[in-house]
Amino acid sequence: MDSKQLRITEIFHSLQGEALSAGLCTVFVRLTGCPLRCNYCDSEYAFFGGEKMSLAEIVKKVESYGAQHVCVTGGEPLSQPNCLPLLSALCDAGFEVSLETSGAMPVDSVDPRVIKVMDLKTPASGESHRNRYENIEHLTNNDQLKFVICSREDYEWARFKLAEYNLPERVAEVLFSASHEELPHRDLADWIVADRLPVRFQMQLHKLLWGDQPGF
Questions:
Q1: Paired strand residues for 53
Q2: What is the pLDDT of residues 79-112, one digit of tens each?
């Protein structure tokens, strides 16, 4: 492990609140910086600042929590080039590693041992023009694809993308969640059931438990 550094907003231990590992004790490594400005972003505090840490320091801090699962998140973690060696270093250390990424950065060089949880940004996010659809070719049945739905129009857009790219056949799970305080969860759940969509409805467990507090 060499002297590569990353700018880190926080490293903390909590329950995973989203995706297929929801409810599992997880260490979160939140990298600083993001080129996107999604309308519903809940981690603006990670856009700037942070502390420089070496790969060895990050891995040591993660190990101190004694958890098996690690989630590298942001901001947009892949906006820092040294995110890639960090992911590999965490895998080499024996952790089960997931990466939360916006889909606006290339994912083709991500270590194949890493579970990619990638967004496709909907129109109401304000950042759908940043989607790299070529990333879909680099997703496998080890990965997950997420849509944050803000409106009925977003939902119909997401339905179209499901079919256009045959997404349920490409990844382990397609995740639909309602944008917090923009769309009632019940509405999204009812639409999914009515249309019998092959997706997993999810709610953000951490927000149900701890609200909008950073670090949870």
A1: 6
A2: 999 999 999 999 999 999 999 999 999 999 999 9
Alpha-carbon distance of 24 to 77, in angstroms, equals 21
> Which tokens hold the place of 41?
């972003």
For the chain, which domains are there?
A: 5-210 (3.20.20.70)
How crowded is residue 163: how many other Cβ atoms within 10 Å of its Cβ? Answer: 9
Q: Tally Cβ neighbours within 10 Å of residue 44.
A: 12
- Determine the Cα–Cα distance for residues 35 and 76; give it in Å rounded to an integer: 7
Q: Rounded to two decimals, what is the model's pTM?
A: 0.93
d(CA 51, CA 39): 26
- Are the beta carbons of 130 and 102 closer than 8 angstroms? yes
The 3-state DSSP class for residue 166 equals coil
Strands (E), 107-159: 115-119, 144-149
Which residue carries 């809940």 as its tokens? 42
For range 168-184, the mean pLDDT: 94
Return phi, psi of residue 73, to 5°: -140, -170
Q: Going by DSSP bridges, is the β-strand pair 173-178/200-202 parallel, antiparallel, or unpaired?
A: parallel
Distance CA 139, CA 115 (A): 9
Q: How far is CA 16 from CA 113, 127, 187, 202, 207, in A?
A: 19, 25, 24, 12, 11
**Position 3, amino acid:** S
